[in-house]
């Protein structure tokens, strides 16, 4: 028997659910409504249109075969009726109808449904700042925003830009302004690092340093108090610590689920917004489904509620909903939380929990950091990759992996490999023996993921006792107190420049000569071992421990991580 499916929302999940259902039940009717005139666009591509990587904003609204996804396209190609500029104002669950209003004329109507899909998405978080309505202050929510931002740059109106927020969109927009257009760009972040809670301070600092090298300024631990302007246009941003001149301001402080209409209809909604759904994407009303940026799902690592506003998730959920509308039994079990963000020639990616979020979730967790070549060390296009693994100490369960490396596919490929198995609760041993495709142009014979797990294993066993570059900086900053003996385990030629700059503190005994030169290494001081990446210094640590040295620390990631972290030696 044919059905009438009504979909509220026409950006990501809504169209996917509607089209999947129509393929399964072509004889049924689907009505999709959206309060905007623009539908089915790739919002995640907006920063790349602003940067110029995407040449035309219309590409964000096109299929891969260059057809524009407008109402006529959905009618002719997909068999879906679309009503744009139509706002859903109320869901009448008793009578199974949606009350709507034309946003231009105010005309009211109602649409009956057999089943309903709530795909209302999320809205940029408003900060309520004085001056938010000034010309030149923008959010990044739709192609209209993108066109406005890029036109102002193209007209030469923007010499200085201020980004509020150092999350995904904030960092992508900072790159867009600084890289393509040469705009003097500053980022203000209330927390003390980029991508707070998603990556460790060490990885965050590496990403920050790279962006600073490309002309982006950061101001952490500051709140924006107001935005000021002249003649209706923004001129500066006033924070709790300084005033920044600005011709353009991007507010990127996260998003808030659009779930008020669901709450008013009596559906279960999180206290901070977001519609609760089960694994079949059903709400507490069996005839109403929800998904995408307006819903709350399960975190498969912690078991807690999760809000993950990503277009990739919305599309996958949309297919599940479309299948189940047609009587299927498709499941969306939840998320592990995977991401990647491009930072000029590098990228930051991760899956699962960072160390901070793991501890906040109640795990007795630890992390290890590794720097290794992303392919065979002898292959000419090799690059260093930095990965950090978070592990639950009690059962060796891997809780997450984050990384910083090139903007190519190598690093995100490793992250995706872990993401695929993370919901199954893999242990260190599973990653240590993970089978990965190998050839010198693509990977090392002992892949960096395998080595990372081995490092975690050695750390838990207590045979590789070390800290990352942030820990090294703390030790180095105390060097004048004669607290530690810094021992460079590399060959003399590598160590000499640092010995010349720091003759009192930097010492050198190559790892292969340690047993013959023990008289040069004190037994009454903590020893800090350094090599290029932490591998030779690990061997040196074993050797010194075997000879009775009690306090020996290996610097994980070695000089490579110290340099990326920006420690001044």
Structure in words:
The protein is 29% helix and 26% strand. It has 16 helices and 31 strands. The strands form 8 sheets. The protein has a 5-stranded parallel β-sheet with strand order 3-2-1-7-19. A 5-stranded parallel β-sheet has the order 9-16-10-11-12. A hairpin with a 6-residue loop joins strand 20 (295-298) and strand 21. Helix 1 (13-24) runs parallel beside helix 8 and helix 13 (469-477) crosses helix 16 (558-565). It comes from Pseudodesulfovibrio portus. Belongs to the class-III pyridine nucleotide-disulfide oxidoreductase family.
Uncertain residue segments: none
**How many runs of DSSP E, i.e. beta strands?**
31
Instruction: Give the averaged pLDDT, no decimals.
Output: 93
Q: How would you sum up the global shape?
A: globular
Radius of gyration: 27 Å
Helix content: 25-40%
Euclidean distance between termini CA atoms: 74 Å
CATH architecture of the largest domain: 3-Layer(bba) Sandwich
Instruction: Tell me the structural class.
Output: alpha/beta
| Count of helix runs | 16
* Beta content: 25-35%
Sheet with most strands: strand arrangement: 3-2-1-7-19
CATH topology of the largest domain: FAD/NAD(P)-binding domain
What is the total domain count?
4
At the first level of CATH, what is the class of the largest domain? Answer: Alpha Beta
Instruction: Please identify which CATH superfamily of the largest domain we are dealing with.
Output: FAD/NAD(P)-binding domain
**Major sheet attributes:** 5 strands, parallel
């Amino acid at each position: 028997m044919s059905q009438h499916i009504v979909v509220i929302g026409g950006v990501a999940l809504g169209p996917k659910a509607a089209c999947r259902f129509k393929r399964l039940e072509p004889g049924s009717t689907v009505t999709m409504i959206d309060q905007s005139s623009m539908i089915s666009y790739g919002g995640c591509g907006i920063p790349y249109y602003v940067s110029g990587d995407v040449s035309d904003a219309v590409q964000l609204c096109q299929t891969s075969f260059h057809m524009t996804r407008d109402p006529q396209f959905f009618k002719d190609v997909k068999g879906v009726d679309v009503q744009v500029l139509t706002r859903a104002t109320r869901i009448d669950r008793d009578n199974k109808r949606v009350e709507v209003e034309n946003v231009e004329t105010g005309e009211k109507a109602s649409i009956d449904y057999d089943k309903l899909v709530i795909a209302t998405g999320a809205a940029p978080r408003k900060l309520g700042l004085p001056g938010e309505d000034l010309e030149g202050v923008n959010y990044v929510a739709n192609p209209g925003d993108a066109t406005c931002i890029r036109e102002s740059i193209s007209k030469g109106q923007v010499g200085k830009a201020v980004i509020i927020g150092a999350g995904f969109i904030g960092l992508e927009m900072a790159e867009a302004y600084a890289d393509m257009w040469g705009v003097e760009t500053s980022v203000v972040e209330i927390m003390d690092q980029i991508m707070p809670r998603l990556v460790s301070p060490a990885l965050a600092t590496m990403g920050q340093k790279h962006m600073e090298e490309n002309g982006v300024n950061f101001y952490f631990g500051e709140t924006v108090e107001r935005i000021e302007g002249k003649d209706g246009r923004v001129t500066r941003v006033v924070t709790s610590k300084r005033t920044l001149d600005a011709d353009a301001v991007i507010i990127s402080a996260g998003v808030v689920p659009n779930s008020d209409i669901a709450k008013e209809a009596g559906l279960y909604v999180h206290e901070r917004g977001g519609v609760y759904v089960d694994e079949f994407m059903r709400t507490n009303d069996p005839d109403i489904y929800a998904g995408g940026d307006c819903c709350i799902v399960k975190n498969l690592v912690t078991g807690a509620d999760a809000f993950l506003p990503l277009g990739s998730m919305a599309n996958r959920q949309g297919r599940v909903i479309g299948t189940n509308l047609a009587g299927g039994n498709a499941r969306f079990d939840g998320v592990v939380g995977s991401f990647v963000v491009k930072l000029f020639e590098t990228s930051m990616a991760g899956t699962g929990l960072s160390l901070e979020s793991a501890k906040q979730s109640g795990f007795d967790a630890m992390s290890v950091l590794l720097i290794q070549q992303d392919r065979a060390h002898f292959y000419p296009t090799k690059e260093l990759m930095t990965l950090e693994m978070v592990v639950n100490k009690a059962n060796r369960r891997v809780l997450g992996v984050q990384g910083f490396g090139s903007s190519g596919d190598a690093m995100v490929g490793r992250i995706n490999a872990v993401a695929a198995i993370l919901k199954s609760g893999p242990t260190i041993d599973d990653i240590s023996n993970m089978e990965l495709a190998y050839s010198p142009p693509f990977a090392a014979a002992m892949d960096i993921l395998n080595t990372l797990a081995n490092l975690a294993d050695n750390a838990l066993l207590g045979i590789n006792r070390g800290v990352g570059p942030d820990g090294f900086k703390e030790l180095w900053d105390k060097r004048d107190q004669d607290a530690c003996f810094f021992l460079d385990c590399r060959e003399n030629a590598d160590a000499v420049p640092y010995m010349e700059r720091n003759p009192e503190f930097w010492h050198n005994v190559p790892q292969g000569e340690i047993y013959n030169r023990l008289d040069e290494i004190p037994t009454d001081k903590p020893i800090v071992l350094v090599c290029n990446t932490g591998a030779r210094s690990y061997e040196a640590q074993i050797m010194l421990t075997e000879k009775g040295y009690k306090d020996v620390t290996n610097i994980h990631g070695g000089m490579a991580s110290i340099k990326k972290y920006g420690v001044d030696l």
